[in-house]
Amino acid sequence: MSFGSRCEHLTSYVSYYSFNDRFTVSTGYKVLSINYDSDGHVFDTMLKGPVLGLTYRFVLRVTGGTGRFPKATGQAFLDI
C-alpha cells in the first residue's frame, strides 16, 4: 500500500453580463494546476486559458400531482 501526493489548484476570474432575466453571458480566464504522484506515476500539469459561457434560465411548469410544487426553476449552461 502506498500513498500518493495530490495537489490541485483552480483559480478563475469571470465576469457576467445579463441581457435579461433569462440570458447571461460570462467570460473570463481559468487556471487549473494538478500535481499527482502515486507509485512512480507522475502527472504534473497546468491548464490555462480563456473561458466563454452562455446561461439560459428557464421555468419548468409542473402540472398535476398534489400541487405542492407548482413550479420548478432550472438552468441550462453552455461553456466553451
Show the helix and strand layout.
Elements: E1 5-18, E2 23-38, E3 41-61, E4 71-79
Antiparallel strand pairs: 1-2, 2-3, 3-4
What does this structure look like?
This protein has 80 residues and is mainly beta. 0% of the residues lie in helices and 75% in strands. The chain contains no helices and four strands. A four-stranded antiparallel sheet has the order 1-2-3-4, with no helix packed on it. Strand 1 and strand 2 (23-38) form a beta hairpin. The chain is elongated and about 50 Å long. The mean pLDDT is 76.
Strand content: over 45%
What's the count of strands? 4
Overall shape: it is elongated
| Poorly predicted runs of 5 or more residues | none
Q: Compute the gyration radius: what is it?
A: 20 Å
Count of DSSP-assigned helices = 0
Q: Gap between N and C termini, in Å?
A: 40 Å
The major beta sheet can be summarized as: 4 strands, antiparallel
| Proportion in helices | under 10%
Mean of pLDDT: 76
Quickly give the structural class: mainly beta
Q: Which strand order do you get reading across the main beta sheet?
A: 1-2-3-4
One letter per element, helices H and strands E, the order comes to EEEE
